[in-house]
Structures are given as C-alpha cells and as structure tokens.
Design a protein that fits this description.
Low-confidence stretches: none
Strand content: 5-15%
Mean pLDDT: 84
Order of helices and strands: HEHHEEH
Number of domains: 2
Number of helices: 4
Length: 99
C-alpha cells in the first residue's frame, strides 16, 4: 500500500476549503431562517398559557377538547405554539376600532 504524504500546505488548503464549505452551508441555512423567521415556533407549556390567558386548568382543557387551542403532546407534557395563542386572541377581539 502506497503512503500519501500530507504537507502543511495541504492541511492549510484543506482548512480553508472546509471553512468555506461551512460558511456556505450556514449562509444557506440563515437565508432560510430569515425568510421563515415569522414561522419559527416558540412552544410554551400549559401553566404558561393559563397565566397568559388568566384561565384555570379546566378551562384550558375545555379549549383543547373543543379544538379552540391547538397543542402538541410529548410524553405527558402539553405544548402550545405561542403564535397560535396570540392569533386566537386577535381573532376573538371584540370592539376593535378600525381606522
């Protein structure tokens, strides 16, 4: 089996190629994040939703069961998208003043 000799210059070139590839990957990823930044989800737990809305655990359960508030369940923990909660509040606003 033939041995390949790697020089310091080879390692230096490899380093710069690798860094360029990583930068390109991160730039592409950041570009997607900028376009989808408003779609990023911030998940909050039940007790946070209860405090946010000033409701009891039973009321929150009713809102889940009747489909008013969407949620995800991981293990035994329920998570809610904070943007969904804000949208529900906006959609149910009363006496909205329109310019």
């Amino acid at each position: 089996m033939a041995a390949n000799i790697i020089t310091a210059e080879d390692l230096e070139e490899f380093k710069w190629d690798l860094l360029a590839n990583i930068k390109e990957y991160l730039d592409k990823k950041d570009g997607k994040n900028e376009n989808q930044q408003h779609e990023d989800k911030v998940w909050i737990k039940s007790h946070q939703v209860q405090r946010m809305l000033g409701i009891s655990p039973g009321t929150l359960q009713t809102l889940r069961l009747n489909g008013t508030i969407p949620y995800s369940k991981v293990g035994g923990v329920l998570f809610y998208n904070k943007a969904d909660i804000a949208r529900i509040l906006d959609d149910n606003m009363r006496n909205r003043i329109i310019d």
